[in-house]
Design goal:
Elements: H1 48-66, H2 71-78, E1 79-84, E2 88-93, E3 102-106, E4 111-112, H3 120-128, H4 133-140, H5 157-168, E5 170-172, E6 175-177, E7 186-187, E8 195-200, E9 205-210, E10 219-222, H6 231-242, H7 255-276, H8 285-302, H9 308-321, H10 325-342, H11 348-358
Parallel strand pairs: 7-10
Antiparallel strand pairs: 1-2, 2-10, 3-9, 4-6, 5-6, 8-9
Helix pairs in contact: 3-5, 7-8, 8-9, 9-10, 10-11
Protein name: SET domain-containing protein
Keywords: Membrane, Transmembrane, Transmembrane helix
Transmembrane segments: 37-56
Length: 380
């Protein structure tokens, strides 16, 4: 069976320009990795200020982890789950949350391969027999859609378990995992979502970080798929896949404002396609960086902040390929900032960008194209 799963953010990455550009520093998405893996070496940050900031961030996360006797106690200090009209249950901020803050660190209840040769329902049900009663209860408290009409949920627990898994599972490396705490997060499109989740292969765990500042009482929302599409497309996809009509802040915009949002999202998607052509040498490095800046500006206008770590890392790839050390360093600095928000300052991607800031010539693409001053993030 091919399981149906939400996309893990290692993630919602940009269109991998490594059909030209992408260093593939995001983790694996639902279907495939964004590109080749990296051997990551942890170097000191390039600037004292940066070192202080990120060391403080790591220390703060470590402090948050150690101050609590249980996962439940830590969760309760950050968020709580409550009923939300029209949505079932949702996750609400118990306090103000800072960008980049670690919200959830969760091991999977279990992971299954994406394709299996045995009964899907039997496999899921057998996995559930091996988890403790508390975890099992958490699993069966999750919502589900698309249960076959002939199935009686009171009588066929295995089929219900399969429906729950298909509705809530996300990519976990080469497999598909179930994470009951993370699965409580509802969906938001474009600028509406404020947290992102990532699978960490080496740790065998899923992490959720705040993409932007979140105020106490605000709902924590992630996104179930790449949403750089018009509203009608997004709603149709979510309706068919997850059984709900999206009423997030972006989908609820008045018609004229929604039209403007759709135009920006489509333009961003088109620009990503244009950026990818650098890999086929159809555009030069200066134009590629100009496209990155246009994507960034449209993202600011739309409020779409996701994937910026990957985008800046791709820009650093272009700059390094053209032996532009200053631009490589500056784009790596931007990538480090956004990777720290999206993936965590302790992520491999953040560590790799720190290395590039220290010595741009260590970038694997260094000098693979003609020498060219491509442009820095500040427009210089």
């Amino acid at each position: 069976m091919s399981t149906r799963k939400r996309k893990a953010n290692e993630t919602r990455s940009t269109q991998s320009v490594k059909s030209g550009v992408s260093e593939a520093t995001h983790p694996k998405r639902t279907k495939s990795s964004s590109g080749p893996g990296l051997v990551v070496i942890a170097f000191a940050l390039a600037t004292v200020a940066g070192a202080i900031y990120y060391a403080w961030s790591d220390a703060k996360n470590s402090e948050n982890e150690s101050n609590f006797d249980s996962v439940e106690e830590r969760d309760a200090s950050i968020f709580y789950v409550q009923d939300i009209p029209g949505k079932g249950k949702g996750v609400i901020a118990a306090r103000d949350i800072q960008p980049g803050e670690l919200i959830i660190y969760e091991d999977p209840l279990f992971i299954v391969p994406p394709k299996i040769s045995v009964s899907p329902s039997a496999l899921i049900h057998s996995n559930l027999q091996r988890v403790d009663p508390k975890a099992r209860e958490a699993f069966f408290n999750l919502s589900y859609v698309n249960l076959p009409a002939h199935v009686d949920p009171e009588e066929d627990e295995a089929e219900v378990a399969l429906a729950i898994f298909q509705t809530n599972a996300v990519a976990a490396g080469d497999g598909v995992g179930i994470f009951p705490r993370m699965a409580r997060l509802n969906h938001g499109c474009s600028s509406a979502f404020n947290v992102v989740y990532t699978w960490r292969e080496k740790e065998g765990a899923l992490v959720v970080h705040a993409l932007k500042g979140i105020t106490k009482g605000q709902e924590l929302l992630t996104t179930y798929a790449t949403m750089r599409k018009p509203r009608d497309f997004r709603r149709a996809f979510l309706r068919e896949r997850y059984g709900f009509e999206c009423q997030c802040d972006v989908c609820s915009l008045p018609e004229e404002l929604s039209k403007g949002s759709d135009e920006r999202l489509v333009a961003i998607s088109d620009l990503y396609s244009r950026f990818a052509t650098w890999g086929q040498e159809l555009i030069d490095g200066m134009e590629a960086i100009d496209v990155v800046k246009k994507i960034w500006a449209l993202g600011d206008e739309e409020g779409y902040l996701s994937e910026r770590g990957q985008l800046a890392a791709d820009a650093a790839w272009v700059a390094a390929a053209h032996s532009d050390a200053a631009a490589t360093r500056e784009w790596a600095k931007v990538a480090l900032r956004w990777y720290s928000y999206e993936l965590g300052s302790d992520s491999e991607q953040s560590e790799h960008m720190s290395m590039i800031m220290e010595n741009p010539r260590l970038h694997r693409s260094w000098g693979t194209r003609g020498v060219l001053s491509v442009g820095r993030p500040d427009g210089s």
